[in-house]
Amino acid sequence: MGPLEINILGGSYTFLCTASGYPKPTIKWFKGNQPFNPNVTIIIIIVVIIIIIPITDDGNYTCVVSNEFGSIQSWKTLDVIIRYNSPPIILKGPRNTTVQVGSNVTLPCDVLSDGVVHVRWLKHIIVGSDNVSVAGAGAANSGSGSGDKMDVGLHIFNITPNDTAMYTCEAHNPLGTTSSFGFLTVIRMTNFYLFS
Predict the structure, then answer these.
(1) What does the alpha-carbon distance between residue 36 and residue 13 come to, in Å, rounded to a whole number?
(2) Where exactly are the transmembrane stretches of this chain (predicted)?
(3) CA-to-CA distance for 152 and 73, rounded, in angstroms?
(4) Whole-prediction pTM value?
(5) FRET label pair with 189: which of 61, 80, 127, 159, CA 20 to 30 Å apart?
(6) pLDDT more than 70, % of the chain
(7) What domains, with CATH codes, occur in the chain?
(8) For residue 151, which of 113, 96, 122 has the smallest C-alpha distance?
(9) Is 120 helix (H, G, I), strand (E, B) or coil?
(10) Residues 169, 152: contact at Cβ < 8 Å?
(11) 37-41, 49-53, 57-61: which range is least confident on average?
């Protein structure tokens, strides 16, 4: 083993720790100085560790192989670099929501992207038997930015029945387009009276 650099958030890497000897050796893993218990597959005398990489998994990984005659160790450094070489990722998009006439609502659209990202909202309405998309729907919070996470929620105030529709958050960067949608249903408040 030896130094390693990983640059894909959410990617995976396989660490191999090969050992042989008599009596058969035991293998232990450490992250830093702490015991580490990964998903381990033992095939005869080869141990394979597969790590799905979140941001917090950077550090030194050590494989210690030992039997009654002694021990040896091998290490690897994992450096996680946050890069999103992909179309935008919508972390939290709009969901099906029901609200009352006159209320306010915010449909979420949390976007993660490297580089410049453009976000817009579409409102899909039914005209006759056709589905029509309207860009910049309502009080859309459309915009653009670069790097990291953006919250580009759609804020709709004093809702009316005309706001009932499917809404789509669409995010675009040079690597592609991602979208997420949800239905907004507007209901009228009905008063019930009990007579005795």
Answers:
(1) 16
(2) 36-55
(3) 49
(4) 0.51
(5) 127
(6) 63
(7) 4-80 (2.60.40.10), 89-187 (2.60.40.10)
(8) 113
(9) strand
(10) yes
(11) 49-53
Cβ atoms within 10 Å, residue 112: 19
At 110, which amino acid appears? Answer: D
Q: Where do we find the tokens 């009932």?
A: 164
Query: Is residue 104 within 8 Å of residue 155, measured between CB atoms?
Result: yes
Q: What share of the chain is helix, strand, coil (3-state, %, to 5)?
A: 5, 60, 40
Q: Name the phi and psi angles at 61, rounded to 5.
A: -115, 130
- Taking a C-beta distance cutoff of 8 angstroms, is the pair 89, 118 a contact? no
What gap in Å lies between CA 180 and CA 162, rounded to an integer? 21
Q: What is the pLDDT of residues 28-45, one digit of tens each?
A: 877 788 887 655 443 333
Distance, CA of 180 to CA of 113 (rounded, Å): 15
Q: Residue 24 is encoded by which pair of tokens?
A: 């058969």
**CB crowding 3-17: b at 16 or more within 10 Å, else e:** eeebeebeeebebeb
E strands along the chain, which residues?
Answer: 4-6, 12-18, 26-31, 34-36, 40-43, 46-52, 59-67, 70-80, 89-92, 97-100, 105-107, 110-112, 116-127, 130-135, 143-146, 149-151, 154-156, 165-173, 176-187
| Cα separation, 42 vs 189, whole angstroms | 62
Q: How many whole angstroms separate alpha carbon 1 and alpha carbon 60?
A: 11
User: What is the distance between the alpha carbons of residues 138 and 16, in angstroms, rounded to a whole number?
Assistant: 55
